[in-house]
Amino acid sequence: MTSKTKEVSAVTDAPEPATLSIFRDKLYTSRVLILLDAGRTLKVEKGQVAVASDDTVALEYLHGRKDFVAVEG
């Protein structure tokens, strides 16, 4: 008996996830940052905040503050 089912490919058209940029908070281990222009928040947890590398609004905000340092690697 032969099977008449068609093989289905496991490949999807989902976009690749963006890499993350990590920043260390020099003042607090936990807080919420409010991005007023973007209407959203960023959460600092365990002294770090992670944002997508293509999130220009968050990256400009974090680079513009003296209490955040980009973590290499």
Describe this structure in words.
The model has no long low-confidence stretch (mean pLDDT 87). The chain has one helix spanning 56-63, and strands spanning 20-25, 30-35, 40-45, 48-52, 68-70. Strands 4-1-5 form a three-stranded antiparallel sheet, covered by helices on one side. It has a two-stranded antiparallel ribbon with strand order 2-3. The protein is built from one helix and five strands, in the order ββββαβ. With 73 residues, it is mainly beta. The chain has a domain at 20-70. A hairpin with a 4-residue loop joins strand 2 (30-35) and strand 3 (40-45).
Keywords:
mainly beta, two-stranded antiparallel ribbon, 1 helix, 5 strands
Helix proportion of residues, in percent? 10-25%
Radius of gyration based on Cα positions: 20 Å
What is the ordering of alpha helices and beta strands?
EEEEHE
> Strand percentage, roughly?
35-45%
- Main beta sheet, described? 3 strands, antiparallel
Mean pLDDT: 87
Structural class, by secondary structure, is: mainly beta
Question: How far apart, in Å, are the first and last alpha carbons?
Answer: 56 Å
Number of strands: 5
| Contiguous runs where pLDDT drops below 50 for at least 5 residues | none
Oligomeric grouping of the chains: single chain
